Amino acid sequence: MVSRGEVALIIAATGLQAGLLLPEYFTSVVIMIILTTLIAPPLLKVLFNAHNQTAQKEGGQ
Question: What is the secondary structure of 2-59 as a DSSP string?
Answer without folding.
Answer: HHHHHHHHHHHHHHHHHTSS-HHHHHHHHHHHHHHHHHHHHHHHHHHHHHHHHHHHTT
